[in-house]
Amino acid sequence: MTIALTTLLIYAKDMQRTAQFYAAHFGYACDYVVVDGLMELWPLHGGAEILIHQAAKSLKFGSAVLKLSFSVADVEQFVAQAAARGLAFGTVHQAHGYAFANTKDPDGNSISVSSRQYRTT
């Protein structure tokens, strides 16, 4: 049996705004059409697809129980390019052979960019 993580489902207060955020800053394409209650985003350069679902009014936002981590070869360059597009990241941290930086999406979900996948051991 083969198993793979291929899809992330994100609950959003404003589906359109959240879809635009991931398309503008993280290399996703979207036609912004809601089908079966979901807005689908396709990765332009590999990785998992994202489905955006309208959050119920009772859903509490801001509790960090999951972080999306996007792999990039050069964290500092990515953070600088994101800043030019209006997305601010926190400090770029150096870890054991890699770098990472953190931000949040419009709904407060934690996101990092990390070069961990590209580290040399």
Explained architecture:
The model has no long low-confidence stretch (mean pLDDT 91). A hairpin with a 5-residue loop joins strand 3 (38-43) and strand 4 (49-54). The protein is 18% helix and 36% strand. The protein is globular, with a radius of gyration of 15 Å. With 121 residues, the chain is an alpha/beta fold. The protein has 2 domains: 1-58, 2-Layer Sandwich (Signal recognition particle alu RNA binding heterodimer, srp9/1); 60-121, 2,3-Dihydroxybiphenyl 1,2-Dioxygenase, domain 1, CATH 3.10.180. It is built from 2 helices and 8 strands, in the order βαββββαβββ. It has a 4-stranded mixed sheet with strand order 1-4-3-2, with helices on one face. A 4-stranded mixed sheet has the order 5-8-7-6.
Q: Which key terms come to mind for this protein?
A:
single chain; 121 residues; alpha/beta; Signal recognition particle alu RNA binding heterodimer, srp9/1; 2,3-Dihydroxybiphenyl 1,2-Dioxygenase, domain 1; 2 domains; 4-stranded mixed β-sheet; 2 helices; 8 strands; globular
Level-1 CATH class name of the largest domain: Alpha Beta
Q: Please work out how many helical segments DSSP would assign.
A: 2
Largest sheet: 4 strands, mixed
The helix-strand sequence is EHEEEEHEEE
- Unreliable spans: none
DSSP summary, beta strand count: 8
